Amino acid sequence: MSEQATYRHPEKRNRPDNPIQRKPKWIRVKAPTSPEYHKVRELMRGLNLTTVCEEAACPNIGECWSKKHATMMIMGDTCTRACAFCNVATGQPNPLDPLEPTNVALAVGSLGLNHVVITSVDRDDLADGGAAHFADVVTQIRAAAPATTIEILTPDFKEKPNALDCFEAAPPDVFNHNLETVPRLYPSIRPGARYFTSLNLLFEAKQRMPGLFTKSGLMVGLGETREEVLQVMDDMRSAQVDFLTIGQYLQPTAKHAAIDRFVTPDEFEAYASIARGKGFLLAASSPLTRSSYHAGDDFAKLREAREAQLKSAAE
Ligand code: SF4
To answer: 283-311: per-residue pLDDT in tens?
Structure first.
């Protein structure tokens, strides 16, 4: 972590302390110990790459890395936003690393992945929000590992009207952007973002690149109501989102937003079933679901679901 990464944005610094609640038994996970976990760690360090798995203190890291599934976070470890749920450091980021696209592609090739997820910090300081750099990463992975399918989990590119142009020449297989929470909670949870900017990004991505899958995710347990979650599902379907993920919000530190409640496994299952009824090709909803959790297996399911849909439309 760079020295700049320890800077705390005033929005984060001035937040009141929120005591961290004890997790229910369905949330607890084992500490990472497998040899594969350590190999992935060394590879990332050796290539100077950052992962959201570590930066976000993801509870699934032991499971994911033991399967060599790591989500690389590009464009540095310092974000220009200060979302109340996110553990990534906020501050003035370093300039982009021109070697990063090549190094990410090398890591994907070394890990021998069928499917990779690439995400990034928000880079409001860059004229295109980092879209061209993101697209370069996609291009380099395609060249180094042509059999690997690519999922990108992007920022909202707010006030960067040409950002999506960059991806038209380098489309990913999955375009993922998380709405994160219900619109009522945006001012406190995602103050730098706008709900309809995010929704529109997903819609635009699908309009411009109809062959790709679009995906979005929600955290629950932040104080949203069930009706609000169902309304977000409807909004996502209006934006033609294919795949919905829903997981429990976990509070990273006392300076982050407090957990309102732990949503039960049965409630998560009910959300998945409602989402399927609303027409999502796929819905993953469980306490430990994260955007990139089981992303490779889910991509195979998405493909199957689309093929089945096309087949039934042709009959
Ligand atoms: S769920 Fe995603 S962020 Fe968490 S460890 Fe797995 S790949 Fe990393």
So the answer is: 999 999 999 999 999 999 999 999 999 99
Ligand 1 centroid, distance to 72 Cα (angstroms): 9
Mutation probe of ligand 1 site: the residue of 71, 118, 153 with most atoms within 8 A of C-beta: 71
Cα 54 to Cα 71: distance, rounded to the nearest angstrom: 9
Q: How many A from CA of 108 to the centre of ligand 1?
A: 15
**Residue 29 Cα distances to 199, 297, 298, angstroms:** 32, 21, 21
DSSP, residue by residue, 198-246: HHHHHHHHHHH-TTSEEEEEEEESSS--HHHHHHHHHHHHHTT--EEEE
Alpha carbon of 64 to ligand 1 centroid (Å): 6
Residue with tokens 């992935």: 40
pLDDT in tens, 114-124: 999 999 999 99
Q: From the CB of residue 8, how many other CB atoms can be counted at a distance below 10 Å?
A: 14
Phi-psi region of 195 (alpha: psi -120 to 50; beta: other; left: phi over 0): alpha
Amino acid letter, residue 290: R
Q: Is 60 close to ligand 1, i.e. is its CB under 6 Å away? A: yes
3-class secondary-structure state, position 151:
strand
CA distance 180 to 224: 11
CA distance 26 to 264: 8
Q: In Å, how far from its chain's centre is CA 244?
A: 11
- For ligand 1, whether the C-beta of 262 sits within 6 Å is no
Q: Which atom from ligand 1 is nearest to the alpha carbon of 60?
A: 5
**Cα 155 to middle of ligand 1, angstroms:** 17
Instruction: Tell me the β-bridge partners of 116.
Output: 150
Q: Token digits for 258?
A: 């407090």
